[in-house]
Amino acid sequence: LWSPVIGIAAGGVGGAPFGLYDTQTIADAAWVGIPFDAWPGFDFTPGVEFWALLPAFIVVTLVGAIETIGDGVAIQRVSRRRPRATDFRVVQGSLNADGVGNLLSGLAGTPPNTTYSSSIALAEVTGIAARRVGVVIGVVFIVIAFFPRFTAVIIAIPGPVAAAYVTLLLGMLFVQGMKIVVEDGVDHRKAAVVGLAFWVGVAFQNGWIFPDLLGEGFLAVLLGNGMTSGAIVAVAMVLFIELTGPRRRRLEVALDPAALPALAGFLEGFAAKARWDDAASHRLLLVGEETLTSLLADEPDPADGDGGRRLVVSARMAGRDAELEFVSATAGENIEDRLAYLGEPPDVPDDREISFRLLRHYASSVRHQKYHGVDIVMVHVDGPR
């Protein structure tokens, strides 16, 4: 729990005899103070500089949103004692909170805020991920803002000590990121996107790519940051892969048991066009049927007035295999979690478990992303062998 604090304190004490700890800054700081002088107010007359920097700020904002999504996924991985599927409703909440925070920062005239990936590694190091701890830390930061001397103590931490601390956190964060990347397997496309985006970001950050041509203008602001340039490359490559990949076939039906014949006909046509044999076609039909049954398992009774929900199914080839995507509005438990718990004896027998067992048997992978009001289930089915 206290290892980061003890490490920083030990580094500060060890660096003090060598003059690395600036005690004069602490002595000059006041005990109590206001963290801001005056509110700058609003300005509704944007000039040339505003329009010149606007594209860069838009890109940076999108990159920040991507970072927030990644942080929302990674923090769930290190915060749970028992592995569970990522709850994308939490990710949505993180993204919304990040947007509101940036809006308030703009209104207050302060630098924009964002989620900080270092907290992910910190939670893993300390083993503490309780929300109440985060709330307490936030309150402490607010209080410290009105006591400049305490702030000066933190700012005066020697650079080498802070660098060692950040190096450890970034190393652990890098490992968490790679775990997310390789979780669903790495094919040549994903490897190209991740590898190229990473190295382009590193190269631009260190000035290895056209440093003389970037200058100090718009391109320098946009590409000089490794996270921004790497994210631009990743987004561009993913869009290119999606646009040049096989076209998706799409079916929209009511989320109802009566949709089974339409779904079966859709998948039969897809398998026939792909020239799959009978065994692979039958496996594809069973996967589609069991996925629909799993989504229906937690659906409310239409008599309760919550009917009319739709299901959108899309299918496309991935090499010789098939990728199915089911998008619906449901409110049940995450299918991934249900599949993970199948090895444990249930407290109460559940007939719905049969569908989950069949789905796990016939599908090579199942990914269920739950959002507020929308569920997305992605299923990978092996083709003929």
Would you mind describing this structure in some detail?
There is one protein chain. With 385 residues, the chain is α+β, with helices and mostly antiparallel strands. The protein has three domains: 3-185, no CATH class; 186-245, no CATH class; 249-381, Heat Shock Protein 90 (2-Layer Sandwich), CATH 3.30.565.10. The protein has 16 helices and five strands. It has helices at 3-15, 23-28, 48-79, 88-108, 118-126, 131-144, 148-155, 159-182, 188-205, 211-214, 218-223, 226-244, 260-273, 278-297, 335-340, 353-362, and strands spanning 249-254, 310-318, 321-328, 365-370, 375-381. A five-stranded antiparallel beta sheet has the order 1-2-3-5-4, with helices on one face. Strand 4 and strand 5 form a beta hairpin. Helix 3 (48-79) crosses helix 12. The chain is elongated, with a radius of gyration of 26 Å. It starts with a helix and ends with a strand. Residues 342-351 have low confidence and may be disordered.
